[in-house]
Amino acid sequence: MKMKSQKPLTRAEMDVMNILWDSTAAMTVNDIVERYSEPRPAYTTVATFLKILEAKGYVEHRRKEEAGRTFYYSFMLSRDKYITSVLNNVKDALFGNSAKNMFSFLIQNEDLSDDDLHEIMDMINKS
Fold first, then answer.
1. What DSSP line would sit under 19-40, residue for residue?
2. Does residue 11 register a pLDDT over 80?
3. Would you call 91 exposed, middle or buried from its count of C-beta atoms within 10 A (0-12, 13-18, 19+)?
4. Distance in angstroms (rounded) separating the CA atoms of residues 94 and 107
5. Where in the chain is the domain with CATH 1.10.10.10?
6. What is the predicted pLDDT for the residue at 13?
7. What residues have CB less than 8 Å from 24, skipping those under 6 apart?
8. Percent of the chain beyond pLDDT 90?
9. Using CA atoms in the order 41, 45, 49, 55, what is the torsion angle rounded to 10 degrees?
10. 46 near 32, Cβ under 8 Å?
11. Other CB atoms closer than 10 Å to residue 16's CB: what's the count?
12. Which has fewest Cβ within 10 Å: 13, 17, 55, 76?
């Protein structure tokens, strides 16, 4: 299944998205800042990333009536759908749209243990 191509995430945007993906509920900017390890980015930095992510179509915001003017952010694209999109782009651009070529490259260039290889073979045999 092909998805509409979205602009890729920067490392900093990915950090924000990982926090949102790991959350069970919509979050405020302060909630997101608090989830960072030290040194935490500034409130305004995270707010800027959220505006960019919203413009790219990755997040949306809503106001809760009881919260006044506070915005609550949630993801619009799941982590799995994002990963699928990124991997499909890599497969298309670097491996001639061949999953076989992509997996062959990964297996040949990763330092996999015998246990890892057996586990991969079990997954292949089960599918």
1. HHHH-SS-B-HHHHHHHSPSSP
2. yes
3. middle
4. 16
5. 11-75
6. 97
7. none
8. 82
9. 170
10. yes
11. 28
12. 55
| Cα–Cα nearest to 1, from 59, 74, 80 | 80
Q: Residue 127: its pLDDT value, please?
A: 86
pTM for the structure as a whole = 0.81
Task: Please tell me the distance from the alpha carbon of residue 5 to that of residue 2, in angstroms, as a whole number.
Answer: 9
Distance of alpha carbon 120 from alpha carbon 125, whole angstroms: 9
Helix or strand (DSSP H, E) at 62: strand 59-63
* Opening angle at CA 18, ends 13 and 21, nearest 5: 125
Segment 87-111 shows an average pLDDT of 94
Q: How confident is the model at residue 65 (pLDDT cuts 50, 70, 90)?
A: confident
- Work out the end-to-end distance of the chain between its first and last CA atoms, rounded to an integer number of angstroms: 18
